[in-house]
């Protein structure tokens, strides 16, 4: 996360603002909140939902009095996208460990199954 010039909203931040932040890989949502608290020297920062440390994307933060408006963002419909590697396995069943096995997959049966489901 990199914010280099925040002078244009420095005065508003204690009253409360909504901050859309791009959360980088391996950062926790709490890491981002902690960084914003330290950067702006403010005690009250909240977020509209935790993102997994292995997820990247939009993390909506609020400061000051705007934290009371977070329910609006929490209740919005969300969309998640991802990439999968069919047939690959890892010891941890996620990207925390290296791929330890690749099994051949019959892609024709997968496509046929998807078409049949439609």
What does this structure look like?
Helices cover 24% and strands 19% of the residues. The protein is α+β, with helices and mostly antiparallel strands and 118 residues long. The chain has 2 domains: 7-74, Alpha-Beta Plaits (2-Layer Sandwich), CATH 3.30.70; 88-117, no CATH class. Strands 1-3-2 form a 3-stranded antiparallel β-sheet, with helices on one face. It has a two-stranded antiparallel sheet with strand order 4-5. The longest helix has 12 residues, at 29-40.
> What level of helicity do the residues show?
10-25%
Count of separate structural domains: 2
CATH C-level label of the largest domain: Alpha Beta
Radius of gyration: 20 Å
Q: What is the level-2 CATH architecture name of the largest domain? A: 2-Layer Sandwich
Report the biggest beta sheet as strand number plus sense, adding barrel if it closes: 3 strands, antiparallel
Structural class: alpha+beta
Total helix count?
A: 3
Q: Write down the oligomeric state.
A: single chain
Strand order of the largest sheet: 1-3-2
Which fold name corresponds to the CATH topology of the largest domain? Alpha-Beta Plaits
> Between the first and last Cα atoms, what is the distance in angstroms?
41 Å
Strand content: 15-25%
- Strand and helix order: EHEEHEEH
Unreliably modeled segments: none
Q: What is the overall silhouette?
A: elongated
Could you write a compact summary of the structure shown?
This protein has 118 residues and is of the alpha+beta class.
């Amino acid at each position: 996360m990199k914010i280099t010039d925040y002078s244009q909203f420095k005065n508003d931040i204690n009253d409360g603002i909504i901050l859309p932040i791009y959360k980088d890989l391996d950062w926790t949502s709490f890491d981002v909140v902690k960084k914003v608290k330290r950067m702006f020297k403010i005690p009250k920062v909240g977020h509209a939902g935790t993102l997994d440390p292995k997820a990247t994307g939009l993390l909506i933060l609020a400061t000051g009095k705007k934290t009371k408006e977070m329910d609006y963002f929490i209740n919005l419909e969300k969309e998640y996208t991802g990439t999968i590697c069919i047939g690959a396995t890892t010891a941890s069943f996620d990207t925390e460990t290296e791929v330890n096995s690749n099994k051949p997959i019959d892609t024709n049966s997968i496509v046929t199954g998807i078409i049949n489901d439609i």
